[in-house]
Amino acid sequence: MILKGLKIVDLSRLLPGPYCSMVLADLGAEVIKVEEPAIGDYMRFFPPKINDESLYYLPINRGKKSITLNLKSGKGKEIFKKLVEDADVLIEGFRPGVMEKLGLGYDELKKINSRLIYCAISGFGADSPLKDKGGHDLNYIAYAGILSQTIGIDGKPAIPGVQIADIAGGAMTAVTSILSAYINCLKNGEGKYIDISMTDGSAALMSTYFTIANFLKKKTSFKKDWLTGLYPYYNIYETSDGRYVTFGAIEEKFFNNFCKAFGREDLIPIKNDDDKIQYLKETLSKIFKSKTFKEWLDFSSKVDACVAPVLASEELTEIEHFRKSEFIHNMKMGGENSFKYFSFPVKFSGETYFKSQPSPKLGENSKEILEKLGYTQKEVDEFIKEGVV
After folding, report:
1. Band of the pLDDT at 336, cuts 50, 70, 90?
2. Residue 93 falls within a domain, yes or no?
3. Do 167 and 66 lie in a common domain?
4. Do 176 and 68 belong to one domain?
5. Distance from C-alpha of 21 to C-alpha of 135, rounded to nearest angstrom
6. How far does the chain reach from its first CA to its final CA, in angstroms?
7. How are beta strands 244-248 and 307-309 bridged, if at all?
8. Residue 236 β-bridge partners
9. Inter-residue contact 201 to 165 (CB < 8 Å)
10. Do 163 and 279 belong to one domain?
């Protein structure tokens, strides 16, 4: 396990922070999830559920331990500081200033652990004029300009099917930053405060569009371009049975292979002819509508033309690529109940794909963690009675 020995205290909830700590747990880190007593991570409540556990919560909190702590109480703060004393990383996803009000901000915690890597994930970052403004994924990608490039067939901005700001702008930016800070700490023993803005992390995905728009000094947003559906050779087409396939033949060789497969070499010279865009799109639409989804699936495996099916989530395990992959696993939940999940999707030499343990129930590991911190059974019982855990 690549990160075995790395200890992470995770205060975050919902998606960005938990996704980040999930990745690190998959890589071998010990993740202690700190949750509010009786309530816990809000993601636990979202349907659908299995054994009364949310299927939104289960896959991204697997392999972690859970302790409940009332951080507004003096005892809760004391326990939390003990947790942090030998931790390598702290992850939190509150609005800027919340941890400082609790007396648990970075400046306070680094006094007890100078090596601590403190990662704060928020919508706009600690120094932004918008730092106190509420928001969610859709709001952040709107601010970042992503929605101006995500145009539906009606010409209006379309909501993406996955959470871009939460996962790419927040979680994966945090993973990269945490591991970078950890490498730095291994070199010089220095901790770091990491300020993650999900809006900035999302805007970074707009690097090419941002540069082009500012260089040309003219409006480029809310318009289709060669990578967002303007040209027929990079587009989505309907099949004869109402399904969809993608065509991404940017390079000449792929477009040529496609045309030759249907005896339509006459289309090759007009691939990049702006005056023939509509004609080419209508012609390709007829070709794609001449076959079923299954026939296009077979075609994509035989002809090197950048044709790929638009798969539904439930179909992924039916495709040979995923069937032969080692990163889809089955998590048993007791009885006949189980669910499938993706593990870390990268292969390391000398390592197998990482299998995980089930997600913890709320406070499941509280007693175990408290005992490791040196508290007696009597003290633990008192904490429970007082609502500290």
Report:
1. confident
2. yes
3. yes
4. yes
5. 21
6. 31
7. antiparallel
8. 246
9. yes
10. no
Model confidence pLDDT, tens digit, residues 99-147: 999 999 999 999 999 999 999 999 999 999 999 999 999 999 999 999 9
**Active-site annotation holds for 166:** yes
3-state secondary structure of 333: coil
Global confidence as pTM:
0.92
With 0-12 / 13-18 / 19 or more C-beta atoms within 10 angstroms meaning exposed / middle / buried, residue 378 is: exposed
- Residues 66 and 133 placed together within one structural domain of the fold: yes
Length of the chain: 389
Torsion of CA 136, 140, 146, 152, to 10 degrees: 30
Residue 89's DSSP bridge partners are 8, 117
In the chain, the number of structural domains is 2
Structural domain of 271: 244-309
Record the tokens describing residue 79, joined without a space.
């326990």
Determine which one of 26, 41, 88, 166 is catalytic. 166
Burial group, residue 167, by CB count within 10 angstroms (0-12, 13-18, 19+): buried
**The pLDDT of residue 348 is above 90:** no
pLDDT in tens, 76-93: 999 999 999 999 999 999
> What is the residue-wise DSSP string for 335-380?
TT-EEEEE------TT-PPPP-PPPPPTTTTHHHHHHHTT--HHHH
Q: Where are the alpha helices (DSSP H) in the chain?
A: 16-26, 74-85, 98-101, 106-109, 137-143, 164, 173-188, 198-203, 207-216, 252-261, 277-288, 293-302, 320-323, 366-372, 377-386
Nearest to 78 by CA among 368, 377, 374: 374
Contact 195, 126 (CB under 8 A): yes
Check: CB of residue 269 under 8 Å from CB of residue 276: no
